[in-house]
Design goal:
With about 375 residues, this protein is α+β, with helices and mostly antiparallel strands. Helix content is about 40%, strand content about 15%. It has 4 domains: about 1-45 and about 55-120, Potassium Channel Kv1.1, Chain A (2-Layer Sandwich), CATH 3.30.710; about 120-200, no CATH class; about 205-260, no CATH class; about 285-370, no CATH class. It contains 16 helices and 10 strands. Helix 4 packs across helix 5 (about 95-105), helix 5 packs antiparallel against helix 6 and helix 7 packs antiparallel against helix 8. The longest helix is centred in the middle third of the chain and has 16 residues, at about 185-200. The termini are far apart.
């Protein structure tokens, strides 16, 4: 086995370091190709006529980089890939390499990084990847990050310190999304409270105070009328976070709804005011359900797995005497004796299929739910 080492013929001055390169490999980078062509054009014509001298002479080029994302390591990885047929980037370096590829105008490496970031979104990377997508105008990456947040804001990010990296603008955008998943409105409220707490690095100030007023618009995105549990309502009062007028309005809405047999007279816009409940389905078990209570009516949300990738979703009304409700009734939950309850609802299912998020929906439906079959069951999604 014989190895041949060819000495470099290009010196790149960048980031306070001299990088030894070979002109034959600069073609992958439009930036370096232009710099090399420009340097050759400025070279001494007599030197270019001397072929032997041209072969041994090293061309010096320089590149200024002011992007803090581009470290020497990231830049070295980008330059290394000029020599590789198979592009090689680690997830640890991908952000800096992407920035370096952008400066170098190295399209194949840049797209490699975009794909890696799109597939590597998690709680630790979500905001840095989203920011990079915005900075480099990569709509697919931005959309992927927003989609991840819509599904994982509450169940994953909401329980981690990485939540504090989320900007207020991005949080508000996700909170307003019609595809936002939450177990209930209270879980969404709790996540938002955690976010404010992490931003302030101390116990949150009351929203009416000067320090809290800038966050008012974030909490106006929440559907606080969907928090009906007496325990959760007590928590709202004890945390001393919301203006008293907000709490009074929430309790007043609940009182009127209970007095009118569950009719939510103050909520007229389904797309922005419907109360949300959700289930998170994993590989096992094949059957999953959750009981929800609203103004004396009880419903069971069900998800059933039929095959490896086939599911059905529906909800059904549960009679107040059902043994499964013993926990709820013991928690001071009101009980309605009405035989029928007209409900406007929509069941949505979101799934990651072959690397792409797909959404299935019954769309908005209005149905009278009885307490016996078949009237107790909704349509199946």
């Amino acid at each position: 086995c014989k190895l041949y080492f060819v000495s470099s013929d290009v010196i790149l001055e960048c980031l306070g370091f001299s990088w030894e390169l070979h002109r034959a490999y600069l073609c992958k980078s439009e930036t370096l190709s232009k710099l090399f062509t420009w340097a050759m054009a400025r070279a001494n014509p007599h030197d270019l006529e001397n072929k032997e001298k041209t072969k041994t002479r090293k061309i010096k080029i320089s590149l200024e980089i002011h992007d803090p994302l581009i470290t020497k390591i990231a830049f070295a990885v980008a330059l290394k890939n000029l020599y590789s047929i198979e592009l090689d980037v680690s997830m640890e370096d991908v952000l800096g390499v992407m920035a370096a590829a952008s400066v170098l105008e190295f399209p194949s490496l840049f797209q490699k990084c975009v794909i890696m970031m799109k597939n590597g979104i998690c709680s630790a990377t979500i905001y840095s990847f989203y920011s990079a997508g915005c900075k480099f105008k990569q709509e697919l990456l931005v959309n992927a990050c927003e989609r991840w947040l819509e599904v994982n804001l509450v169940p994953q990010l909401g329980r981690q310190i990485h939540l504090r990296k989320l900007s207020q603008e991005l949080l508000q955008k996700v909170l307003r999304s019609s595809r936002l998943f939450t177990f209930s409105e209270f879980y969404l409220l709790r996540t938002t409270l955690f976010w404010v707490f992490l931003h302030l690095s101390k116990r949150c100030a009351f929203l009416e105070r000067e320090t809290g007023q800038s966050y008012m618009s974030v909490f106006q995105c929440l559907r606080l009328h969907g928090i009906t549990s007496s325990k959760h309502l007590e928590d709202l009062r004890h945390i001393n976070f919301f203006p008293q007028t907000w709490l009074t309005r929430i309790l007043s809405n609940h009182y009127h709804a209970l007095e009118n047999g569950g009719d939510m007279a103050f909520q007229r816009d389904f797309s922005t005011q419907a109360v949300r409940f959700g289930l998170l389905i994993k590989e096992e078990p094949k059957y999953c359900s959750e009981i929800v209570s609203l103004y004396g009516f009880f419903f069971q949300i069900k998800a059933v797995r039929h095959e490896a990738s086939s599911y059905s979703f529906y909800m059904q009304r549960v009679k107040y005497t059902d043994p499964i409700l013993s926990f709820f009734t013991s928690e001071r939950s009101p009980v309605s004796m009405r035989q029928e309850r007209e409900v406007k609802y929509e069941i949505k299912a979101q799934a990651l299929i072959d690397g792409k998020w797909q959404e299935f929906s019954t769309y908005q439906l209005t149905q009278k739910f009885g307490i016996t079959k078949p009237s107790c069951r909704s349509q199946v999604s």
